[in-house]
Amino acid sequence: MHIELTPLTKERLEQSLAGRPGQFKMFYDTEDCGCNGVLVIRIVSEPSPTDIVFQSEPFTFLCDRQQELLFDESMRLEAEEGYPAYKLTSDSTLFGSNIRVQDRRN
């Protein structure tokens, strides 16, 4: 898998790290949502045992191997201008248009 990042997206993700080490985990959160899950981007200190690294530049991106099939091979992550959210798309799918970053580092 690969995620294409716009310049604004790179800038916002860098701000989210706040000068601290971290990795971005693409995660469908299914707790208390009553649906198939809500896509979030979690900042984690390290991968969990079931995570795979699918991109390492300019940032490290992870996902759980059980959720890997929910994503496409090539995607685009775009920061929303004037709004603290992101949109993840591919040529065939809109994965989410109000994706938030959750900092889950220790």
UniProtKB/TrEMBL annotation:
**Known Pfam families for this protein?**
Fe-S_biosyn (PF01521)
Q: Where is the Core domain positioned along the sequence? A: 1-102
Matching InterPro entries, A to Z? ATAP_core_dom, HesB-like_dom_sf
**What name does the UniProt record give this protein?**
Iron-sulfur cluster biosynthesis family protein
Source organism of this protein record: Paenibacillus tritici
